Recover the amino acids of this structure.
């Protein structure tokens, strides 16, 4: 999820009671709710390095608790009168909530890092979800109003907001399962090896359908109120010796292909050499965009893409990841 969502979650956790555990607990929750994204510093080394390290160790079952421990130690040393155990519990709650929420998205996270580098994504919630903002923000506003009126239910108001958020995510998970079920009815004869239903940012009933049928990809949209629309088929380009060599020798290609679930290969030739690129079809376009113009712009951006340029001699001249 985005950092606004993580920050609002930290505030709601604090107002639900965790922030009343003593000095520094609110700060611990706010910082820890965003702390796993400290791996953004790897962007200084380029987008390929960022993708290689993002949502890896800092989001894993070892690194995330370690970050919480470090934060608790630092806050305890800086804040007189604070209690280490309380700070640690709040920090652990913050990083755990962060990782859990990142699992909801299509982007996913490597939660088992460093033991397993697999990206896990539940495809339930779009990474920027206005309904999540509304639920968390509404919980904070309700808690503030009740506290101003000295109501004894101010803290439960924040807890109710968390409950509503989990209910919303659970409902989206149910709709996601229905979308996958619809996809199975549409794709029974295609020999599909992998299927995904990806969420829309605004409409919980609309899902983008992607299917890998071995020699081709199928994409389309499922509206649970109307059923699936016609699917688009794109045949895969067979990997020749040159593409296989690029896959084996390019570090950028290795990073990208480890991340991408639906990599679409394209090869173009010019007098200066050959360009080998892969696009992740998950991010090619987004269902539920407000206007056709915005949809066309999204398709032109092509989402996540790895590009490797070879010279006439067959050697790699440049390799980049764009998103």
């Amino acid at each position: 999820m985005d950092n606004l969502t993580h920050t609002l979650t930290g505030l709601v956790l604090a107002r639900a009671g965790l922030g009343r555990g003593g000095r520094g607990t609110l700060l611990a929750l706010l910082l820890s709710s965003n702390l796993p994204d400290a791996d953004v510093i790897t962007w200084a080394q380029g987008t390929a390095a960022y993708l290689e390290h993002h949502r890896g160790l800092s989001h894993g079952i070892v690194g995330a608790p370690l970050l919480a421990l470090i934060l608790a130690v630092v806050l305890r040393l800086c804040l007189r009168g604070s209690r280490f155990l309380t700070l640690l519990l709040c920090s652990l709650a913050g990083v755990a909530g962060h990782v859990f929420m990142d699992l909801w998205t299509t982007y996913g996270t490597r939660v088992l890092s460093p033991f397993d580098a697999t990206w896990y994504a539940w495809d339930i919630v779009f990474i920027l979800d206005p309904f999540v903002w509304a639920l968390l923000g509404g919980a904070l506003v309700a808690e503030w109003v009740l506290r101003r009126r000295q109501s004894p239910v101010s803290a439960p108001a924040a807890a109710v907001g968390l409950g509503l958020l989990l209910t919303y995510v659970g409902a989206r998970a149910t709709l996601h399962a229905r979308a996958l079920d619809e996809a199975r009815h549409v794709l029974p004869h295609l020999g599909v090896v992998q299927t995904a239903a990806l969420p829309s940012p605004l409409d919980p009933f609309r899902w983008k359908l992607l299917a890998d049928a071995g020699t081709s990809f199928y994409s389309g949209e499922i509206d649970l109120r109307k059923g699936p629309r016609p699917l688009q088929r794109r045949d895969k380009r067979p990997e020749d010796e040159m593409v296989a060599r690029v896959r084996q020798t390019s570090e950028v290609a290795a990073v990208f292909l480890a991340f991408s679930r639906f990599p679409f290969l394209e090869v173009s030739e010019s007098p200066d050499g050959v360009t080998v690129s892969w696009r992740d079809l998950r991010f090619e376009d987004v269902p539920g965009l407000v206007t056709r113009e915005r949809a066309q712009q999204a398709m032109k951006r092509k989402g996540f893409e790895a590009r490797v340029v070879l010279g006439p001699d067959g050697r790699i001249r440049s390799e980049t990841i764009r998103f």
